[in-house]
Structures are given as structure tokens and as C-alpha cells.
Amino acid sequence: MSCQKLIIEGARPLSGEIKVQGAKNSVLPIVAASLLCEDETVLENCPHISDTYTSCRILNHLGCRCKFSANTLVINPKDTDKTDIPDELMQEMRSSIIYMGALLGAFGRCRLSFPGGCELGPRPVDMHINAMKRLGVRVLEEYGAIECVCPKGLTGNKITLSYPSVGTTENIILAAVKAKGETVIINAAREPEITDLAKFLNKCGADIKGAGNSTVVINGKDKLHGCTYSIMPDRIAAATYISAAVCSRGEISLKGIDISLCESFISVFEQMGCSIYVYDGCIYVNAAKKLRSGGKIITLPHPGFPTDVQPVVMAAVCKAQGITIFEETVFENRYRHVDSLVKMGADINVVGKAAVVTGVEKLYGAKVSATDLRGGASMLTAALGAEGITEISEICHIDRGYENIEKAISLLGGKIIRK
Ligand code: EPZ
Predict the structure, then answer these.
(1) Using one digit for the tens of pLDDT, what is the confidence trace for 44-96?
(2) Using an 8 Å Cβ cutoff, are 251 and 15 in contact?
(3) Which residues line ligand 1 (CB under 6 A)?
């Protein structure tokens, strides 16, 4: 896919109001979950991002019909007649492993290729596979493909996760909602996107209790019906726009998102000296003055500080007074944006899982290349606070998770073009 470039003229304080898009990490599992329904599902507040388009291509391959207009995605699973996803589709989107649980839950079988590692590290799926085996699935791994069969149908079980993996928790829920009997997930991931998936499935007639907590109980049902559901707002996109305001010393307000969804990271921006408060249903952010460092930031599973917000907060602290120390505990290789920030004049030293950022007076525009989704977002927010012109190439990474990013930034007064 040919990637375009973003050209940003920085050091212009952002201002204005922006509506936060629907959450990428909620729409992806919910689109997969629509396979479990007997009839049509209507998803509102769906973001126009390439991962949503990839999801529609996967559903179309399986025989589903999808209609995506404005921000509403209508899915009709009635003609689904396949349970395999070819390698080229699996490789387009790492999170397509989520179709393992959805296809097993819907049809009791699936054949997927191993979703490749990605820029963040090897991204193994051992926990996914072990969890499916606990539900009675026979898993054959050969020549890079995963063949799952369950001749007697899935049977509920108790599954203890060694790590609260988001995708594994979602795959278990998707496989268990139509399994025979009760499934209990111990040490489940607690991310808000999991709660959104459970709310969608319960609206379709499932029986899921405890989503958002460490123990989730699912009682299997014979059939699920479709429903109309509005996807939750994207808290990571919200953090990205707050970082853009901080980098550019601007003041913005975010519409369409409740501040309770941002609790795991908002305190870091407040510690830096941003004034953030809720006003007339919006999150109001004033970052006009020189800010302090973020102190010590450790990424952790929810409700800890989100790993997805680490790259954009790193951009935000590059010009803050003092030293900010990051410890990335979730992914092995999530500092790939550091080289580009250093190229723009940042003072950052990476030692193993730690990254030490010493604030500098200014950043300067440079030619950089997006390395991954949130790393690319980090370069974009840093560019908004840099003197001169920044050119970001490989922006297909950014387009995976941000809806029309240049339109959003332009609405806030940023000078940015795509070419
Ligand atoms: C989800 O990825 C998100 N993606 C990620 O967002 C997010 O960073 C991550 O959760 C953590 O919050 C989607 O929701 C589509 P994990 P996921 O399973 O499910 C290891 C973004 O930028 N692990 O909780 O893949 C894994 O390697 C993306 O929006 C195993 O070892 O995350 C990682 O180190 C990036 N074996 C850690 O657990 C397994 O079987 C956390 O992974 C599964 C995971």
C-alpha cells in the first residue's frame, strides 16, 4: 500500500474544539463479534480508519455483507460460509487473531495463519491458543497456520491468565458466549474496550458478568441476535490530542468523551501543569504555559498508565522542564519513535526498558518516518511544537488508528497537509 506523507509547520498553538472518534480497540473486537449474531448488527460511531476497512475485508471474505457510510457500519452475517482467513488478510492487521474466538464461537472451527509479529515485538499468541484448548478446542499449528476444530462444540471452563492479556480476554469472551455452560476468566484484562465488547454482546442476548474486573463470568447461550450499538470513544486518540495541545502550548476542548475514560493518564498531564477540567460536557485542556516533567511513568495493564499513551506523552515531555523517566513494561520494543524525536532535537536516552527524557528548550522540524501507529502519532504531536517544517513519511501506520488526522489537526488551527 503506497504510504503518503504529512507535512507539518509547527510552533503554532492549537485551539478549538474537536469530537473524539470511536475507539479502534473497541470496534475491532465488536466487528468480529458480529459474526456470532443470527441477524444484522448496526454499529454507530465507527471510525473511518484502515483497521476498520481491513475488518470489513475479512468479513466480506467470510461471506458477510458490510455497508459503511458516514460513521455507521451495518453488518449482515447471514451468508457467512467460510471459517478460514487467508494469510494476506491476517498479515494486514495483527489484531486479526480476534477472529479465532469469534469463528470458534460462531462455527466451532477456524483456520488462520499466525498473525505476524509487529513493530512492537514478537506478539506471541500462546495465551490465546492455551485458552481455546481449555474450552475443548483442538489446535493444530503447522506451517505458520493455526487450525482449530471442536467437534463436540465448545464447553465452558475456568481459565486463569498468567498475564491480563487484552486480546486473549476478548478471544475467550467471543468463544464462550455460545459455549455449553459457564466460563470463568481469572486475571482478565480490565481495559474499558473489554467492557464495551461485553456491553455489545449482552445487548445481543449474551450473559457476561464482571467485564472490566479481573474475574469475568460468561454463561453460554444458544443464539445471539443483532443489535444497534454505539462504539465507545477512543481514549488513546483523546490522549493524542491532549499531547498535541501540550506540544504546541495550546488550549483545546474534546467533545464526545467522558473524563472517566481518561483516568489512567490524565493525572500525568495534570502533574506536568496542564489545567484540565470538564466544562459543558467537554474535556477542556489548557497547556499554554511552560510545563514540568512527567516524573516517573510506568506502563501497566489497565487501570495502570496505558502503553498506547507512552509515545505521545514522551513527545509532550520533550520540551518540559526537568527529567521524565519512562518504564515500558507491556511491549518489548516500544521505543522506536525515540530516534525520530532525537532527530528533532529531543534529549532521550534508552536503557533497556527505561527511557530518560531531559527537557530541552526547542524542537526543530525534520524529515522522519512513522515506525508504528502510536510512534507515528508521537512524531506528529512533537512536530506541532517544533520550529519549522516536519515531514512524516510512512503515515499508513497513523491511518490505521486515527480518523482523518490532518482534518482534525487543521480544525484545531494546525498547519498540516497530506501529500
Ligand atoms: C491490545 O493489544 C491493543 N490492541 C494494543 O493497542 C494495546 O497496546 C494492548 O492491548 C495493551 O493494552 C487492540 O486492542 C487491537 P495484549 P493485544 O495481549 O491484545 C504479550 C494500539 O496501538 N502476550 O494485552 O495484542 C504481548 O506480546 C495497539 O492501539 C503474550 O506474550 O495486547 C504483549 O507483550 C498496540 N502472549 C503483552 O502480552 C499472548 O498470547 C500485552 O499484550 C498474548 C499477549
Answers:
(1) 999 999 999 999 999 999 999 999 999 999 999 999 999 999 999 998 888 99
(2) yes
(3) 24-25, 28, 95, 121, 123-128, 163, 165-168, 189, 191, 307-308, 330-331, 373-374, 401
